[in-house]
Amino acid sequence: MNRTGLFIALALWLVIGVVFGVFPELDLKLASLFFDPATKTFPLKLNGWAGFARDAAMWIAWAFALPSIVALVVKLIRPDRPLLVSGRAIVFLLVTLTLSAAILANLAFKSYWGRPRPVVVSEFAGDLPFVPWWDPRGGCGRNCSFFSGEGATAFWTLAPAALAPPPWRPLAYAGAVVFGAVTSGLRMAFGGHFFTDVSIAGLVTFVVIWLAYALIYRWPRTRFSDEAVDAALTRLAWPAYRLRQRLFGGKTGPAASL
């Protein structure tokens, strides 16, 4: 998560955006590699093993977030106990996943950017006209093509990779990129997304992760400690915990003075 990585990501974003903006037919040509004109479908989406691989990819991505989710829930239920996972890791992982895959991809762009998916455009036996990535005026009403939520989730594994021990970090980054690329390739093969949908999803996710890492771990003015997160969650959850103790009996423990 250094400046070189950020510059590379921004440069790729610019190149992909410009090239596929000027030549939008490239998206159609890449999607056509997975389309069978004889059956007028994307055959791989009917393959059971491919469907299982798609689901498994999301399970794997969420598995990286699960320890932080569990630790947060346990802390909110028992604020008298220390966090089971690093406080900064919880904030970093859950905030980046929420921002990239949930808020930006699904709530913002996919809900209001009307680009139709490949499987429904007229070039692939659908009934909607194709539009380039930069045009939000497509005929899709909801859950649209730009940009890919599953691609963003898969590339989000760059976040846990950033927390790997330094000697293992380059390998973790490489694994996350390969995982994101393969998952995104499956989405294209199913006719679910164009190349620009998945590539821009990955680049947006990387920038979100880079900024969050800098804010939490690198920049002196904004970084904070694990202990600060633990204390903040304790203060947040303590009133409800104390109320439960009063209603159901038992002592509130030494943290009652917080």
Description:
With 258 residues, this protein is mainly α. It is built from nine helices and no strands.
Structural features:
258 residues; mainly alpha; 9 helices
Task: List the topology elements.
Blueprint (H helix, E strand, L loop, with lengths): L2 H20 L2 H8 L15 H30 L9 H26 L36 H7 L2 H5 L6 H21 L5 H24 L7 H23 L10
In short:
With about 260 residues, the protein is mainly alpha-helical. It is built from 9 helices and no strands.
Alpha-carbon distance between the termini? 36 Å
**Integer-rounded radius of gyration:** 22 Å
Rounded mean pLDDT is 94
Low-confidence stretches: 254-258
Percent helix range: 55-70%
In terms of structural class, how would the helical and strand content be classed?
mainly alpha
Strand % is under 5%
Overall strand count: 0
Summed up, the helix count is 9
Main sheet summary: none
Q: List the secondary-structure elements in sequence, H or E.
A: HHHHHHHHH
Structural shape: elongated
